[in-house]
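>> received
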Amino acid sequence: MTDSKQPSEAPSPSVTSAIGANETPGLMRRMACWLYEGMLLFGVLFIAGYLFSALTQQRHALTGRHALMAFLFLVLGIYFTWFWSKGQTLAMKTWHIRVTDLRGQSLTQARALLRYVLSWLWFLPPLALIAPFHLGAGETSVLMIGWILVWALLARFHTRRQFWHDVLAGTQLVDARPRSISHD
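>> returned
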């Protein structure tokens, strides 16, 4: 008698692709990724700020602060445009999240740049209220955190639970966890 079971073969590359190619990661996972991204960006912004102050020979923190903010905005734009056009930032790799266009393809640099500009919708409304109302640090923090929570929760109203800057940019966040391989 021969054994009817065939020896198992190595999985094909398609088996190890991401699960649910258009499946949106959960809100808590996306927000954890967002917070982790903020921690990683601390180093990027620290080095960029140091480079700016060395190149401009800045002696006082308030001297040229608007130029510094514009420079940091540019540095962040380059950072995100570069990594999003590759599919993931380091934080997104850690949390197994990928950004794609609506067809599941990698973003062009132009679309990644558009997503970067639109992602400032997370911060612009509260920032626009700070100066005219001369809000203090505590009020600013409450306003900023409150708006971020509102913006994140607004994703619940989208059919695929995408953030609204992604909807406007024609991009999507998808689950990039490796598929589990079952041997039946």
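>> The longest helix spans residues 27-56.
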